[in-house]
Amino acid sequence: MALFRCLAIALALSFSSCYLSTPSSATPSDGFLRCLSEKIPSELIFTRDSSNFNDVLVSTIRNLKFHTNTTVKPICVVTVTDASHVQAAVRCGRMNGVRLRVRSGGHDYEGLSYRSERSEVFGVVDLAKLRAIAVSTDKGVPMAWVDSGATIGELYYTIAKNNPELAFPAGTCPTIGVGGHFRGGGMGMLLRKYGLSSDNVVDAKLVNANGDLLDRMAMGEDLFWAIRGGSGESFGIVVSWKVNLVKVPSKVTVFNIAKTLDQGTIDVLTKWQYVAPALPNDIIVRVMVQGQQAIFQSLFLGTCDKLLPTMTSRLPELNVTKADCSEMSWLESAAFINFGNNETTALLNRSSTGASGFVKIKSDYVRRAIPKGAWQKIFSWFRKNGAGLVILEPHGGFMGTIPAGATPYPHRRGVLYNIQYITFWSGNDDGLTAKSWVSNFYGFMGQYVTNSPREAYVNYRDLDIGENVVVNDVSTFDNGKVWGKKYFGANFQRLAVVKGMVDPTDYFRNEQSIPPLLQSY
Ligand code: FDA
Signal peptide: which range, if any (predicted)? Predict the structure, then answer.
């Protein structure tokens, strides 16, 4: 611990001399852009004067709410193709007092990878072109190095084409960027068997606030712990990740069963809450509630014949039959879950989930099953104007065995499921009805979900739960705690201490970045 403190003080001193100094002869933007042009090929730099600046900026925006005339946009987007470009961008930014935001797949629900809530001069480092994936089975251990700009669909496809009995646990939407997903966790259909994406990361290459490129050994275990789910953009720019691959059988089984209120969905849902987290690890049954029905969607790592006896004994109310089952390869299941068909090449389409909508998302965790009587009231919310949907992701299984402090993601033992509240609207609408629906519904749900803190998932970013306050050019720990405890529980303080060690003057910051906590605090 003494060593830890000394390191923090030494780093703070070394940073204070070179941090954000602005040459007096030029504006920060001029100096920054000049510096970039000296170090990075010009065809990779798009300034506001570039004719295709807008096309590049919007290329991976997934929430049109953040592409308006009043959105605070970057002064440039740098579409890096090499780690050295990332290093150059950080050094130019530091030298000229211009901050950077980093974008991999652009799916951030609050758009923080490419826009700012406040008036601010910043550049975007866009990693979409940095997307190599190298699968290896050296010494019999299957693993891959994957660049942050790859999508999880590309990762799934590349792994399975290498060996159809290998896979990786990550989300259900194939266009999500690896960089943003892993830096916040990454939950999907293999969650109960193998945990989050970030649980399976074994090394990484990160450019820190000095512009140095560090691997796990060079960055040390505290920083390596922090970037695996602890809001990676607060600590640097992760260029690539080394991940352990996981085993799947040659055939898996999926089903989608819809049950309306009239068909007894409340009985099934009430029981599902404690059955789903206690099922064998190789079964996940998640739920989508919309309108007056719930859809039970499952992935089982095995054949239908093996799945049926378990489902019949554990959740007979769902009445799963052979006719409900579809057997396929794991890769096909990744396509099926998202597109409803087995067309696996669609997983490579980086715009298959385009920027077509305006969205607001919130999240919760449930540790005590919601009583049957409450579900009736919950369903009444889906009859209101502006109603969206909710997705319930069961935990338990392997997730429940991981200690809360093993990685920054704390929602482990005792969590029954995560709730994601989603509401959409179109461009012709001001979105007020939809936004007030999600906010009021979230308010109503407060009585049934975790509190003190009311837990939330950092990958389902929600600025309503709190934003940083910057004092003397540094985000404050006390204000950060308001939202930070919800995402990270007791891990928030450790994240802030790591931030204080590696970026004490808060170069890498956004509205919900980890604030630095110096040991003298
Ligand atoms: P984006 O590029 O916007 O980055 C998100 C955040 O990570 C930003 O703060 C950014 O600065 C930071 N960041 C990005 N790259 C970084 C890097 N290389 N180094 C450091 N920081 C970096 N989640 C889930 O767990 N399971 C799911 O099934 C889904 N499904 C889903 C569907 C859809 C349609 C959307 C829009 C989102 C999801 N998500 C999800 C949420 C998703 O995991 C979350 O938004 C990720 O952060 C997105 O990562 P991107 O790289 O795409 O986003």
Answer: 1-26
